[in-house]
Amino acid sequence: MDFQDTAELAAFRSDVKIWLAANATPRTDKLHMGMEGDTAFQEAQDWYKKKAVDGFACLTWPKEYGGAGLTSLHEVVWTQEVEHYKTRDAHFVIGIGNCGPAIMHFASEAAKRELLPRMASAEDVWCQLFSEPSAGSDVAGLRTRAELDGSNWILNGQKIWTSGAQYSDYGVVLTRTDPSVSKYRGLTLFMIDMRQSGVEVRPIKQMDGGGHFNEVFFRDAIVPDDYRLGEVGGGWTGALTVLMSERLAISGVQPTGFPQFLDLVKSLELNGQPIVSDPIVRDRLATWYSQYAGLQAVNKRMLTAVAKGGIAGAEASLGKLVGAVMNQEIANFACQIFGPAGIIQDSQLSPERAHFQEQVLFSPGVRLAGGTDEVMRNILAEQVLGLPQEPRADKGIPFQDIPTAPA
Amino acid sequence: MNLEFSEEQLFIRNQARNFLSQESSADAVRSVIDTDTSFDQALWQKIVDLGWTAMSIPETYGGLGLGYLELCVIAEELGRSLAPVPFSSSVYLATEAIKSWGTQAQKQHYLPKLAAGKLIGTLAINEGLGVPSVAMRIVEGKVSGSKIPVPDGDIADFTVMTIRDGNDNIGLYLVDLANTAITRAVLSSMDPSRSQARVTFDAAPAQALGDAGENELTELLDRAAVLLAFEQIGGCQAALDMGIAYTKQRYAFGRAIASFQAIKHKFADMYVALELAKANAYYGACALSSDAPDLPLAAAVARVSATDAYYFITKENIQAHGGMGFTWEFDCHLYYRRAQLLSGLIGTQSVWKENITQRLI
Fold this sequence. Notes:
Helices cover about 45% and strands about 15% of the residues of chain A. By secondary structure, chain A is of the alpha+beta class.
């Protein structure tokens, strides 16, 4: 055991530090960089383009697809260093983190060479179209139909919770191609051109007032068969690749709220007393720090395994579960210690406080997106601990015969 | 960065696991609980024969000269098997204190005997039933008063203990317990697989352990916190495994109860608690073995996290077993009891949480 970088990673870290110092603005606080709005999107696109020009885009992708041909450990070094700078990711994480790996795995060589370099250099924006109004945690219960018409597929149906659809040029979409077989077997995965008349994007107003997510409607949208990812009826395998990549992409950057909380309690005074003299605050600080430190150490153990040639496992589900809950609890606790003024949400008055009020209202969504807390627990229990699945009422039944409402 | 044990260390862990699964079975643990014995003497002798008491002692003093990481993997297995032996008292605390701060003469006297298992040592730092405090004073090389509770205080040959000097400074002292000026009484405790005693001193001779004072005591407890965290995560894993095995074979409503989400989600939460505690313990081990400047914080985090996880996992393991979990016959309570014991051994959660907070702000 040791805390040192290998010589190769140390050299890379030094290159990254030099490049960041010359190309990015250092952070002065730990407040979240928002993802919403056209300005945020434009800043993110500029940043990704800049990275691509100097070879820091998609570090783990092969060079022929626009990447840097490095390892996931290089990626981690990058993440650790870039944390000290003000940079925006906006919706590029979804394309690069979720869609990219599936395309690399399942697309034709021609499609890969056409689309991946443009994704890597942030010319094209991608979204992921899985969830539907009647297919949330049971995502394989989706009903968007794709029907073959010559060499094209015609899509009809509705997706929901699509982050960044309003900015997207392309999407990866999971559809039902055969309702007469059981639900997992009748799915097919495609890439779709979002800039066509058969695709309509409508923003969803969230409970916190934001508009991060969208509904997407397909009315005779056209997808060439060349844009199919994997076999007809083999869409579930592809979808699992995307979902696993999503959880990995989220796990490293899952906000816990702890660094912001630590900054807050170090500086906050109430009634002329430092808030940190309060025994309850001291207790919470220690409890949350032990979880926060645990998540970081879990990540370090996962990286040790990856460095030794292993693969990242269910740690991603663990990180999401713990981080999302902690983020909500910390935000709520912070607003409680603000006293009666805790209800005031005004970033002009106090950006540090507004962060926690925003998180009180946004954090419920984090516990749902990318797999709910309950789905994460099922994954850990079934895939890691080997506990048996619950009996399923839809097992082995043709999709079209599965009940969807009380009889 | 590398946060995994080496092949050699993992080999030692497997050897220890195999050995303890034979020699420290639940029956062996119960034979200590159900009788008046304070520890499993036969197991202790075998542990000495395997060289575990000599591991961290330098070769010049008759030890094996290995590091803390080897001790961590042993600790994990002792915790997993609930071994009823005075290992933590004698090795993590007494041996460690003498090795680190003893005079040349003290090291030469104690360390070879500790390595060879001819002496058992402990650490006595608590007085009375309130907050840990030190009232006992050294007067002309002698000490009077009581320490309570002293882990393994009834069987230890000597103790390292806290005593105040004429200037009110707390120092660490060595006291031979086989002295007529000392009386010892076994105490009943929540975990009778490990003994606790009241040790009363009536003008008993004490010698200063080098120049060790309060700072050294803090350092000693930080190191012990990491080692005990490994005992705790070993116990966590055993209790979790036990619950999984039981709920997979226990049927109700026509199916294994492990297939109900009410049970599955409970186990997912237990797994999460264990993984966080384990990762913190590994980080602490790395800090301990490299003498990193953030050892005090890393040790406190490992301690708090492991203590929380052990309580949570052992209580939920009882719950998952239903009524059978509440019986004396099932082993659930053995882990639950051990979780209680380990949570108090070198200071409870409030002490270690305060250590974290003080280092963060």
